[in-house]
UniProtKB/TrEMBL annotation:
Gene3D superfamilies: Spore Coat Polysaccharide Biosynthesis Protein SpsA, Chain A. InterPro entries: Npun_R2821-like, Nucleotide-diphossugar_trans. The keyword Transferase applies. This is Sugar transferase.
């Protein structure tokens, strides 16, 4: 079974509703969607998910605990993570819960596409799943241009473990990737932890905990990673990030120089911003109208002709 999954709690309620609506608008209700709980703060999203027959809140306690234990073990090995986290105000594990997206590796789907809650699906995904016939992981992004948010690039071990030619081809953003069930069983997780204990943990980047871990897991295991951004001809590839200001909207779908986006990632925008906008504040941000369209897809009367909420202050 193929499916889509994401990670959420009540803090990202508005983004999750928009994402689920975008998936429904583009793919319909036939593809199952699983939501992994970031933490126990899920009352609002659980109520929303209950309204959708094709969407499920993942509640496999053993699986959640397995990946909680794995993430803790990874960071307990890291030589400087605690110090780095204290410097940014985190006294415990930083952004603990982001790793729960890895539950997909032992979840109900044989093949899955993971999307962050702060994304909107814009286009078909059959080509993503088609590449899983030949590869272990399929992505579509340009994170390889900035490895500093994936690994500690100052670590002398990094080049030994992952030479530049691999980093230039295999690094990816953890906000959108497709993969397969069963890649990381207990034996493989134990093997990865053993490699980290040899000193390799120092290459992990503590401020992007899920992103550095999933890249390490895939790359260190020798998984085949296919990136559309590196394989499509230049005249066919598109961007995906909200930081790109040249996308054009047509019928609430974004296009990059005439080419339809696969997804839009509102990366770097705080959940508080979306909550404030959906509470009625008239705050501008890139592709705001597109977000509001999907957020209120089933409540179109909520938005006035100027693209603002009727309750705007």
């Amino acid at each position: 079974m193929d499916g889509i999954c994401t990670l959420a709690n009540d803090r990202v309620y508005d983004q999750l509703v928009a994402l689920l609506n975008s998936i429904e608008a583009v793919l319909g209700k036939n593809i199952p969607v699983w939501v992994y709980p970031y933490d126990n703060n899920t009352e609002k999203i659980a109520a929303e998910i209950a309204k959708r027959s094709h969407v499920m809140l993942y509640d496999h306690a053993d699986s959640l605990q397995t990946w909680d234990n794995f993430a803790q073990a990874v960071w307990d090995i890291h030589p400087t993570a605690r110090k780095v986290w204290r410097q940014v105000g985190s006294n415990n594990y930083h952004r603990f819960g982001t790793h729960r997206r890895f539950c997909a590796f032992d979840g109900p789907m044989e093949r899955f596409l993971y999307l962050d809650a702060d994304t909107l699906l814009m286009g078909a995904v059959h080509q993503i799943f088609s590449q899983l016939e030949y590869h272990d992981c399929v992505v579509y992004d340009f994170q390889y241009k900035d490895p500093s948010h994936v690994y500690q690039i100052s670590s002398p071990r990094l080049t030994t473990i992952f030479p530049p030619v691999r980093r230039e081809r295999e690094i990816f953003c953890s906000g959108f990737y497709a993969s397969k069930k069963g890649l990381f069983d207990q034996e493989k997780r134990n093997w990865l932890l053993a490699q980290l204990k040899t000193g390799e943990a120092e290459i992990l980047y503590p401020l992007a905990p899920d992103q550095t871990i999933i890249n390490y897991m895939m790359m260190r295991s020798g998984c085949s990673i296919y990136n559309f951004a590196l394989n499509l001809p230049p005249n066919e590839r598109t961007g995906c990030c909200v930081t790109s200001n040249h996308f054009q909207a047509q019928d609430n779908i974004l296009y990059d120089k005439g080419r339809r986006l696969t997804y839009l990632h509102y990366i770097g925008l705080s959940p508080r911003l979306f909550a404030r906008v959906c509470a009625g504040e008239n705050i501008d941000f890139p592709y705001r109208d597109v977000f509001l369209y999907y957020r209120y897809l089933h409540q179109p009367s909520t938005i006035n002709h100027e693209g603002n909420l009727y309750c705007s202050k």
